Amino acid sequence: MGESKEARENRLDRYKRYYQKHKEKHLARNKEWREENPERVKEVQREWQRKYGREHMKKRREGLIGLHGPDDGDDWQERNREHHLAQKRENTNRRRQEVFMEALEHYGGSPPKCYCCGESIPILLCLDHVEGEGNKHRKENKISHLSQWAKRNDWPDLFRVACHSCNMGAHLNGGVCPHQQAA
Ligand SMILES: [Zn+2]
Ligand SMILES: [Zn+2]
Question: Quick one: average pLDDT of 157-168?
């Protein structure tokens, strides 16, 4: 319908964070409401069944959703766990990729390109420490994902965008990419 996939995911994400934060209160209020509105509860269940029941059964058949307890005699817990882990990995990767693109645009313009040779294919680009000494900086700050760190620290003026070739070129050539000397 009107909502894009991304907007929907953002909304669900916000909701999940909110839910985690207020879980106890939420559950208590939910229970209270159920007790006061038994008719409405049935209605909602019917509605849910009508809307999502088929999809749910399909997922269950495919083993993506477990049955409801350890006595069901299958490995629902294990399958469920694997499914959620896979989903979590996918989300993490996607978020990292988004922050990486954000970082490229912040430091490398739009569309981002290598400061030295002008390469602009994103997968060939990386963040390059302006001062060199990238490894030292990473180690001192215990950084595993440079673009995430940069974002969290409000995009400090420590980086520029380089292609992997110019990044490595400078590293091997005492801090200056060989392209710059040839010019
Ligand atoms: Zn380059
Ligand atoms: Zn270069």
Answer: 96
**Cα-Cα-Cα-Cα dihedral of 148, 150, 154, 158, to 10°?**
-170
How many other β-carbons are positioned within 10 Å of the β-carbon of residue 104? 21
Which ligand number lies closest to the CA of residue 182? 2
pLDDT score for 2: 65
Which residues are CB-neighbours of 33 under 8 A, at least 6 positions away?
Answer: none
- Ligand 2: centre distance to CA 31 (Å): 63
pTM over 0.85: no
Q: How far apart are CA 153 and CA 107, in angstroms?
A: 14
- Regarding whether 54 and 23 lie in a shared domain, the answer is yes
Tokens 């440079």 sit at which residue?
146
The closest ligand to the CA of 124 turns out to be 1
Q: Containing domain of residue 55, as a range?
A: 5-64
Tokens of 102: 């954000």
* CA end-to-end distance (rounded Å), the chain: 54
Q: Are residues 111 and 175 in the same domain?
A: yes
Question: 89 and 178 in one domain?
Answer: yes
Q: Are 119 and 162 within one domain?
A: yes
Ligand nearest to the CA of 117: 1
